[in-house]
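Researcher: Please translate sequence to structure tokens.
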Amino acid sequence: SAKDAERVAEHIGQEVEQWMQKERRAQRRDEGAHTEGASIHTLYVEFDGTGVPMTKKELAGRKGKQPDGSARTREVKLGCVFTQTHVDAEGRPVRDGATTSFVGAIEPAEVFGWRLYDEAVRRGIHDARRSVTISDGAEWAKNLAQTHFPNAVHVIDYYHAAEHVARLAKLLYERNPKFLEAQLERWTTELYEGRVQNVIDQASALLPTTPNSMKDARKEIAYLDKNKDHMKYDEYRAQQLFIGSGVIEAGCKHVIGHRLKQSGMEWTVQGANAIVALRCAILSNRFEDFWEQRLANEN
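Model: Translation complete:
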């Protein structure tokens, strides 16, 4: 029955998570021994979060975005690791085929950070010529990148930054819509060319002098100013690096959304994490590894 399938899936998912935990512990003991063979050209680490609908018991006392301030979901943090070796005829980076692996869970950012770091180590980050992290600039994501990947190039997803620029333009030009499109095009170009400081300076000059006026616009400017060191998109493109986090955004939809966000679903943390572990193993092409190790342990 459907309920039997659910129980089996969650049970195997829990076993997969235990297998991965055991693997990570063993890997940390041997972390000093790097992998042998050709070094990786560029290794990327991307991470994001997506909400999953939960049972009322799992949401008790949690604040959320519902009209009454309550929560309907809890965040699954998802990370992926992949490599890049080549560029296309126009010099744009090309992701190496079948190199993307995923990890994820409903857990605090501090715990998830180690989970993602362990996956990056397993994938050979110590042997990579260069490493890159890409995120949306959320505070937890920035802290994770700085804590676990201090030697990586930290990139704020260009498309996420462009959304902030678009919101800023709309806030400042809402009374002059005929100028909005032209200014948005100029600012988006400035952003793409790595001149985010020009956007900050021009937008700041348009703000009213009263402290509380255009509060939302000031917040958008503050976001750009706080993250400008990771918005050097002209430099990243010159280095033939990805500047967008499309891989992890697609992962949130495919790994998590397609299975855990169907109509009428409500999850417990334990059940959701079991299915997330199962999905990550399958979509990272590691499910056969799990069964081989399980069989070896039985024998």
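Researcher: Any highlights?
Model: The first strand starts at residue 40 and ends at 53.
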